[in-house]
Amino acid sequence: MKKITLIVFLHILTARAAIAQKQEIRLFTSDITNFWNAYDHITVTKDSARQYAYMDSLFLKKATPGLKALMQVREYTAKSYIDAINNYPMFWRSVRPNTLKADGFAKVIDQGIARFKKLYPELKPAKIYFTIGALRTGGTTLDSLVLIGAEVALGDKQTVTTEFPRSLSHLRTYFDSEPMKSMAFNNIHEYVHTQQKTTVANTLLGQSVLEGVAEFLAVQVSGQASPTPAVAYGKRNDVRIRQAFAAQLFNPFTGFWLYSNQENEFHVRDLGYYVGYAICEKYYEKAADKKQAIREMIRLDYNDEAALSRFVEQSGYFDESMQSIKKRFETSRPAVVAIGPFSNGSSQVAPSTTKLTVTFSEAMDEKSRNFDLGPLGEDNLMRVKKILGYAEDGRSLSFEVELKPDRHYQLLLGEGFRNKAGLSMRPYLIDFKTAAR
């Protein structure tokens, strides 16, 4: 009898262990509860000191690792939250009921992750945090953490945006796409990012493929079409988009193609998602071994130009070689054509010179620039005292300098200088020596 009882007991323990393993906690939502508790206290007082005290004690000090990570990635502060709460009361009231439904997504997300593991058996575990941000993201990642900004990710057509400034106008289109209905899809997209080598690439092409991999694999895992408006638009306008993208794909800046409300010829944001998605789709279609193709997408080093170029070229998405595209890009970049009042490389520059003018090959974007150290380092840096501004035609920039006699100076004009179309300038080193007296 004791033996039978022991066997039954062991069966119970095994069954409980199996259930516990099956119900592994992947989703954390306590930040949402804490936020609304803080919100209810903050909105009943006009005293800013008390508002900040409530935000700190009821929300920030109780932050999960997910909220801390989200604040780090999106540079949120207590002020970010207080300003958003005070400026958009109708928005918060409209989105509140949806955010409180976050726990209900646990099962469908778990099922999606299980399907992902079948396609990619090497899948590494990641924790998912549904938290509250200040309207800068619906989803992002940090290391092995999936970070969902529920105030954005769980919006819908009923979410009020009439209080928003122009910088948040894109959220109207996003909420109209009913992102709450695509929650499982969006979570897989972000989960893919936790498996990749990086979430930041150093070119427009690299960042677009990085996002495209996540979007394409979310489609494969979920079995549903991408809900991202740019993907649907891209499929209808592929030729125009491909041609425009090819002219900038080696650019170190993403411009209007990703994460931007910047006006563009297509009047659609985030078209880099589509280009990256289309490249992955072509690559996958050509692959004989589909699982291996998925491994290659996830493990690709998006900052390795040679590896990235091979991947894109093998997809056959562009009509010409990556080498040809790179060559055309380099020749199309703006450049410095002269400096004055002396020539670059001069060795007897008057130390009394106080103004330097740089002339470019074309009109430049006056808001974009960057200066950096030359090869000789900080000891030889020519310091810019004051930016005097661009000429009326935008093709020359003047700035004040302070020189000393018998010195070797350098200043690197970097890729932060861009033309009106957003193409980065070829770096240019100003290098000269001043006369002894």
TrEMBL record:
This is Putative Zn-dependent protease DUF2268. GO terms for biological process: proteolysis. Residues 1-20 form the signal peptide. It comes from Mucilaginibacter gracilis. GO terms for molecular function: peptidase activity. Keywords: Hydrolase, Protease, Signal. Pfam families: GldB_lipo. The keyword Protease applies.
